[in-house]
Each structure stands twice: as C-alpha cells, then as structure tokens.
Amino acid sequence: MEVTYGVLVFIVGLAIGSYLNVCIFRIPKEDSTVFQPSRCPICNTRLKPVDLIPLLSYLLARGKCRYCRQKISPRYFLVELLAGILSVVLYFQWGWTIDLAAFLFLSYVLIVVLFIDAEHMIIPDELVIAGLCAGGVLLIYNLFRPFQIYADRNWWNPLLGLVIGSGFLLAVLLIGTALYKSDEVMGLGDVKLMAPIGLFLGWRMTLLALFISVVLGGLFSLVLILIGRATRKSVIPFGPFIVLGTLISILWGWKIVHWYLEIGHIMLP
Ligand SMILES: [Zn+2]
User: Fold this and answer.
1) Biggest CA-to-CA distance, the chain
2) How far does the centroid of ligand 1 lie from the alpha carbon of residue 65, in Å?
3) Distance from the CA of 62 to the center of ligand 1, in angstroms?
4) DSSP codes of every residue in 60-107
5) 213: closest CA among 178, 237, 185?
6) How far, in Å, from the CA of 126 to the mean position of ligand 1?
7) Which residue has better confidence, 269 or 266?
8) H or E stretch including 111?
9) d(CA 37, CA 19)
10) Which residues, at least 6 apart from 239, have a Cβ–Cβ distance to it below 8 Å?
11) 33 C-alpha to ligand 1 centroid (Å)
C-alpha cells in the first residue's frame, strides 16, 4: 500500500516538475506561469499533450523538439526527475503529515531557485515571498503542534532560524563588501533566501544548511579554479549551494548531526 502511494507521489512529483520547468523558464522573463499554453522554448510552437508527458516525451524525442529539431536543454528532464525523486523520498521520510506538505513546498521552490540562480545569477523576490508566506503558516502551526524538524517546542525556534540564516549571510555580505570594496561578494538575494529557509528548518538545521552550503560552494569553486574554468575573481552564484545544503539538511540533517556527535564521543571520551 505504501509502495502504491509512493508510485503515485512520484508521478505527481514528475507532473509538478514539469510545471517547475515552466517557472524556471518564465519567471526571469516576468511572464505568467499560468494561463499560457506550453510552447517550445526555441521555435515557440505550441506543444500538444503528447509533447508534455514528463520524462517520456523528452526521451522519445531524444532531447529534441519534434517541430524544429533543435536540442532541448537536458534541464527539462533533470528538473522533472529531481522533483519526482525528491517527492517520493520526502514521502517515505515524513508520511502523510504537515511536515511532508511543508518540505515538498519548500523543495519545489528551491528547485526553481537553484536553476534560475545558476543560469541568471538572480533569486527572484516572488520565490522568497512564496517561501515566507508558507513559513509564516508553519510558524502558527508550530504553536499548536511542534514541527518535527525543529526538535523543540519553542515558538521562537523558526524565527531564530530566520535571524541566524539571513543574519549570517548579511554579515558575510557586509564584511566582504568592506574588505574587497566590491558588491559582488554575495548577492542580497542569498541573504533573502535564507529567511524562509530559516523558518522551515529552525535554528539548528539552518546552521547545518549554511555550513554544508559554504563547504560545497568552496569545494566547487576550488575545483573550477584547479581545472582552469574560473579564477579567484570569477563570480559564482551561491544560491544553488544554499539550495543543496538545505535539501541535504531536510533529508539527512539529524542523521548527520547524530553521526557527528558519535564520532565526537569516540574521539573525545
Ligand atoms: Zn521547437
């Protein structure tokens, strides 16, 4: 029975992934993401239902548009697959709970943030606002029943997450700007993005998410510099690493913390 639901959640996740693709393509252009038929991003031909089956349409057409034969970005396939897999993994982790609904919503918003920031180096305000609204609902919900990831009943836990998350990056932004006399150290978008994430994760997991994103971002930059694809002056968007750090914290955050504490006990008896 659980497996049947899992398959169902996966299929719904794929369908939502295909809507997320629309958001990733249209939000930076300030186009409506609803009330508009789907079109080929290259030749603008209106797509038929058969062209819109998640994963399959892309595979059957071998990654090309059926009308203009131009190559379609593998991002379309990747986003659908990512949304499908995340949905089903989160379902098996949280079951039919408010926690599931909350983390599904946050993950979908973050997938859109990841791909828009990677390509355009911006984090659109509407995505941050959508996250803040849902985070506000969570804040109220937490007054009645503790949101599981917070690990305590304190009503201020999500607010502290917001302050720590955005505050840390704001400090980095201000110090970096003062030191390097350049405003390209980090965008204000990253600071804003941490606000809804803090509300969803609470202060403990927000700290972990920040830590993981700094490590991943640093490693990625280092690899790019070592293989000669970037210099120390290159600007690399940080948003995608915040998204990855957050998703990892949602999925395995407490496991990582417990594992770390156990290692600490072995090393410091
Ligand atoms: Zn086309």
Assistant:
1) 67
2) 5
3) 13
4) HTTTB-TTT-PBPPTHHHHHHHHHHHHHHHHHHHH-SSHHHHHHHHHH
5) 237
6) 29
7) 266
8) helix 98-120
9) 12
10) 113, 114, 117, 118, 123, 187, 189, 190, 193
11) 19
CA 71 to ligand 1 center in whole angstroms? 8
Query: What is the per-residue pLDDT for 147?
Result: 87
Residue 119 alpha carbon to ligand 1 centre in Å: 21
Distance 40 CA to ligand 1 centre (A): 5
Angstrom distance (rounded) from CA 186 to CA 180: 11
pLDDT at 67 over 70: yes
pLDDT at residue 153 in the model = 83
**What's the average model confidence in pLDDT over 209-219?**
95
> What's the gap in Å between 76 CA and the centre of ligand 1?
14
pLDDT (average), residues 141-154 = 87
Q: Residue 64 in contact with residue 70, Cβ under 8 Å?
A: yes
Nearest in space to 124 (alpha carbons), one of 112, 133, 111: 112
Checking if the pLDDT of 92 tops 70, the result is: yes
Name the band, by pLDDT with cuts 50, 70 and 90, for residue 229: confident
- Average pLDDT of the segment spanning 88-96: 95
51 CA → ligand 1 middle, Å: 11
* Better pLDDT: 120 or 179: 120
Expressed in angstroms and rounded, the spacing between residue 47 Cα and the centre of ligand 1 is 9
Residue-level pLDDT at 94: 92
Domain borders along the chain are 1-96, 121-269
Question: How close is the Cα of 10 to the center of ligand 1, in Å?
Answer: 28
pLDDT at 171 over 60: yes
CA 39 to centroid of ligand 1, rounded, Å: 8
